[in-house]
Amino acid sequence: MTSRITVLPGDVVNRIAAGEVVERPASVVKELVENALDAGATRVSVEVEQAGRRLIRVTDDGGGMAPDEAALAFQRHATSKIRTEADLFTIQTMGFRGEALPSIAAVSKVRLVTLAAGAAVGTEIRLEGGALVKQRETATAPGTAIDVADLFYNTPARKKFLKSPATEFGHICQAVQRQALAFPAIHFRLSHDGNAVADYPAARSLRERVQQVYGEALVDACAAVDEKDAALHLEGLVCRPVAATGSRTPQDLFVNRRWVKNSAIAHAVYEGYGTYLAKGRHPRFVLALTVDSRHVDVNVHPTKREVRFSDQERVHEWVRARIRAVAGPASAPSRMTGGSGWTPLQGATVHAAAPLPVAGTLTPPLSFVETAAEPAQPYLPSVGLEVRPMGQIANRYLLAQIGDEVQIVDQHTAHERVLFERLTAQFEAGTIASQHALLPQMVELSAGEAVTVRAHLEDLRRLGFEVEEFGQGTVVVRAMPALVAQSDPQALLRSLVEDWEERPSTPSVQERYNAVLATMACHSAVRAGRKLEPTEMRKLLEDWRDAGLPGTCPHGRRIAMRLTIEELDRIFGRLGWT
Fold first, then answer.
1. Which of 53, 128, 376, 530 is least surrounded, with the fewest CB atoms within 10 Å of its CB?
2. Is 488:340 a contact under the CB 8 Å cutoff?
3. At what angle do helices 411-429 and 509-524 cross, to 10 degrees?
């Protein structure tokens, strides 16, 4: 009888492992850069072609490998990082499993050129589908260069599931950014199809590296963290409560220089802000936690994106207390609260006072309910209802009589809905009005954000923006949609980038644009805490009435609480008498 259980061949084992380790081109970049870091590199260069599908080349000036080591490196579970089981509990390196190189080689064509320190001649190795094709001596500079070509050429099913080039290259940018943040003292360079995309020279501190990657505006909006005790050290930047946004970018967490996802620490950060964090707002942070390697387990997942702590409750409480100490209710620097810096041309038409279409003429698709709720049906006919503002409560709610009802209206969500309706009407008509700036605004973006903006320049044009590329990671905003021209261009552009990254592809053009229209409206709407003049209150309430008194903003938050005359009569016991 033939046995039904057999030992899989080595090439099949490697392809199975590749399915865990090599998810996409960015996974290859991550693993190869980690090897360069473990080799003691001070300069790491990443070059990709066709978003990594055609070629990924990682070059470093690290220690290099001897000829016998170079060949052995592509054997499964061959590693220089650990020797015994006990080493798993004191891991100091980025890699240790011995799976990355054989897994990558199993699904690509690899060329490795390396020269060990002190050696006279280097080694070149070529592999295809994990099989050694050639090994010879060669002249080369000290360090290692690895070319990974035709990724997934022998696994077309995996190749078919790759996303668009812009999306895949965005993930590569993100992988390089994370390594650069984890190792500020190392020089990182990234190029795509021969064009330089990011260049992060060696930095003196994490703060300086964050400024290189995310820009000066984020650094200025953040407070520094640098706290330690006998077993833990937390450093980095966390945004002040007033600088929290609707975006979760960035929220970078590193444990022993490894970028990870850890729900306990993320929860601790939010808990640290406590009631200082407004509902629907998220802190931005870049935090590096150093823990004694004996008390953290990184051998949880093949991609090493998860870690476990021996005393998770203590780590959670310690991080929460450190964040609470620095993320108090202090205001952001004046440059962050003094306006957007956007200067409209004098004499430009103010579109905010333009009449809205009557209720019922705009109906975004039902598929948009997750991000921008469809307009609620008006619960009162809006035609002819008199609006009588009666005041403002805590500089965030408007008290008014509309018709025979008393309304308490959230000024931000009401204005957000009004702007959303107008933007949607203009978009459907194909004529979102633009407003040019007297002084064009320079906006600094991370490498990944710049890639997304470059891929959506036509979308931005349709939305009323005029955006041009200006060097690495910088764009010039020359015009904005007139309805949102008072918004901060950098904050708005980054929020739009996040919307596009979360929805890389959708079946409906309208669905793709509804989310960004909602984001644009939210950024430009009057904020809670702003004192309004009586004329401003009346105008906002009349605009809301003319929109049909919708009950929610485009993101689904409540706009108003109403009291009818019948409810007032019941409250005061006036039913049945006058």
1. 530
2. yes
3. 140
